Amino acid sequence: MKTVLITGGAGYIGSHAAKAFSEKGYRVIVLDNLIYGHKEFVKWGDFFNGDIGDDYLLKSLFCQFQIDIVSHFAAFAYVGESVQNPRKYYDNNLAKALVLLSHAVKNDVKVFQFSSTCATYGHPEHIPMTESHPQNPFTPYGKSKRFFEEILRDFASSYPIRFSILRYFNAAGADPAGEIGEDHDPETHLIPLILDAAMGRKRGIEIFGTDYDTPDGTCIRDYIHVTDLAAAHVLAAEKALNAESGIYNLGNGDGFSVKEVIEKAKAVTGRDIHVVEGERRPGDPARLIGSSARIKAELGWQPKYASLDKIIETAWAWHQKRFQTR
Ligand code: UDP
After folding, report:
1. Is the pLDDT of residue 326 over 60?
2. How high is the pLDDT of residue 325?
C-alpha cells in the first residue's frame, strides 16, 4: 500500500483528493493547519494539525511514515489579497512550500504533486490555453505558483524526485455523495455566492462587469468538477510514480459566462436570484478556457461530471446541507 501525504487535505480540493486517493487504496495522511480548512472534512486517513513550514512537525511526520507521494494543496488562494499582502503569499505558497519540498527530497519521497493554476498563464494569448501557453502571471498569487513550479522542475532535475503539476481552471461542484464540498470564509467564488443568493444567505449576486468582449458582455470561465479534479490527481501521481513527471491542465475545454452560470443556477435551484450589474473586478480576463487534451491523451483522464448542470446540482445539494441550519 502506498502512502500519500495530502497537505491542505481539510480544504475544498484537498479533501476531495483525500477521498479519491483513499478509494483507490492509498493510505492517506492529511496535514492541515485549519486556518481555512475544516476538521470535519477529514474523513479519510490520519489527521495532523500543523503547518507545512513547521520543520519539527515535518521531521516527525516523515520519520513516522514512509511517504511515497506528497500531494500539496495547502496554499493561500485569494488573488486580491495577494496584491494587498504579497508577503503572506510568498511566505506560505513559496517559502513554506520549499520547506515541505526539502523534507520530501530528504526523505526519499518519490512524487511531489502540486496544485497549480491557470493564473500562472496570465492574460490568454490563445484559447483554449494549452500547457505550452506562455506563463506571465500578473498577481503575487499567480507568481507564487509559477515560481514554485520552477523550483519543482529544478529539484526534479537534480534530485531523485518526480513531480506532477496540475494547473486548474475554475474548480466547482461538490462530492456527489454529499460528504464534502465548498466552504470558504470569506467566499469569493461565483457559484457558491450565487447559491448563497438562491438560499437567501445573501441578498443577491453582483456581476463584475457586463462590458467585456464576449457574447453577453460577462466573463467566460471553464468550470471543472472538483471530483474530476481529484481523480486526475490519482492518475497523475501514478504516472509520476511509474514513469515520469508531468504538467497537466485541468478544465473542461468549455466556457460559460457569468450570466449563463446564473441562469443555470436559477434552473437547477428553482429559485429566483436577484442580480445586480456592477463594475469590473480588476485583473479579470474576459475569457479563460483550458485545453485538457494532454491529460486525456497521456493519462486517459475523462471527466465524469463535466456538465454545468451536474456541477451546480452537486454544489446546490451540498450548499443546502451545509448551510441551511446556520
Ligand atoms: N464573479 C462575479 N461576481 C462575484 C464573483 C465572481 O461576477 O460575486 C465573476 C468573476 O469576475 C469571474 C467569474 O465570476 O469572471 C468567476 O470568478 P471566481 O472568483 O469564481 O473565479 P476566478 O475566475 O476569479 O478564479
Report:
1. no
2. 58
Grid coordinates given for 36? 481555512
User: Is domain 190-222+253-288+305-321 in CATH 3.90.25.10, yes or no?
Assistant: yes
Q: Over 80: is that where the pLDDT of 230 sits? A: yes
Atom of ligand 1 nearest to the CA of 219: 15
Residue list, ligand 1 pocket, CB within 6 Å: 170, 188-190, 193, 205-208, 219, 221, 258, 281, 284
Does the annotation count 141 as an active-site position? yes
Pocket mutation for ligand 1, best pick of 82, 141, 258, 289 (most atoms within 8 Å of C-beta): 258
135, 120 Cβ separation under 8 angstroms: yes
| Architecture in CATH for domain 3-172+224-250 | 3-Layer(aba) Sandwich (3.40)
- Of the listed 141, 168, 248, 305, which one is catalytic? 141
Alpha helices in the chain (DSSP H): 12-23, 55-64, 79-84, 86-89, 97-106, 140-158, 190-199, 226-242, 258-269, 293-299, 308-323
Q: Range(s) for CATH 3.90.25.10 in the chain? A: 190-222+253-288+305-321
Q: How confident is the model at residue 16, as a pLDDT? A: 98
Residue-wise pLDDT tens digits, 245-263: 999 999 999 999 999 999 9
* Ranges for all domains in the chain classified under CATH 3.40.50.720: 3-172+224-250
Q: What is the mean pLDDT of residues 101-118?
A: 98
Closest to 250 measured CA to CA, from 112, 130, 70: 130
Q: Which of 68, 115, 101, 73 has its CA nearest to residue 238? A: 68
Ligand 1 mutation target, pool 81, 145, 189, 289, most atoms within 8 A of CB = 189
Mean pLDDT of the chain: 97
For ligand 1, atom 11: residue with the closest CA: 208
Q: What is the DSSP string of 90-101?
A: IIIIIIIHHHHH
